[in-house]
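pinging the channel bc i need a second pair of eyes. not urgent but kinda urgent?? the chain im working w is below, pasted from the shared doc
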Amino acid sequence: MHMSYPVIELRLWRQFVAVAEELHFGHAARRLHMTQPPLTQAIALLERLLGVRLFDRTKRSVALTAAGAALLPQARELLARAQALPAQARAAAAGEVGRLRLAFVSTVGFALLPQWVRAFREHSPGVALELIEATGDVQLQALARGEIDAGFMLHSPGFAPAGLQHALVTREPLVLALPDHHPLTSAPTLPLAKVLAEPLVIFPRRIVPSLHDAILGLYHAAGRSPQVAQEAIQMQTIVNLVSAGLGVAWVPESVRQFQRPGVVYRSVSGPRGKAVPGCETTLVWSEGASNPSLERFVEFVAMLTRN
């Protein structure tokens, strides 16, 4: 049979601890800035509520019973936790403690993310940071369902996802990943016309539509259609397929950090020496998000990107 017990006020536990530490009702009453009779009545009430005796009392002495001695450490802990609650509430409101579910595309994981995670943990040790690697399309779905708080997403310049708050993190050029035995690797910079006929390894359009369209636009502007040899979702997989000789791939410059044997990276110059399209990485989060830890992280990222 389930027994229900009354909720006991903190005041009674505070009075119990004072008597237990002083082992004298008069001294405990003075410590609590009260008179002795109400304190005696409070301890009697606490014992009735618990259904056990907490003190053995005589005219000359007060001693804890076994039950009282067992409760004393827990009562002290309860009072300490209650005393800490206001500070914890202020810390939570300031985003100093809490949880942040952060998604990221793999390109951020090569260089920026490890440094930033370490720095943010030093900056806000009370925030539990949950990292989830996910492509842009998966991140958008997770944001809509409230399964993540924010995400680092890759896209073409100026094409941050609509309907979301966002902060630019990095801009970088696209470079070409080639098998290291490819004849074109002999030149440090490649003219675009020389690479358009190469088999292409690329991510599906749904992953990053704006960047997929920008890459294909390079070919269409030159009157060519890309020869897509293979599609792959993760950037590491794309680079691995290049190393196996399946084709070449357009990747953000940060992917150079992924030192896969059998792959080299080369810059490409567009027609008349113009730069080929670049890409941006943006931190995105939902409109009206009310997670103080997220606000703290957004401020932290803004501080890092300003420096």
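so The mean pLDDT is 89. and The first helix runs from residue 10 to 22. — does that match what u expected or am i reading it wrong
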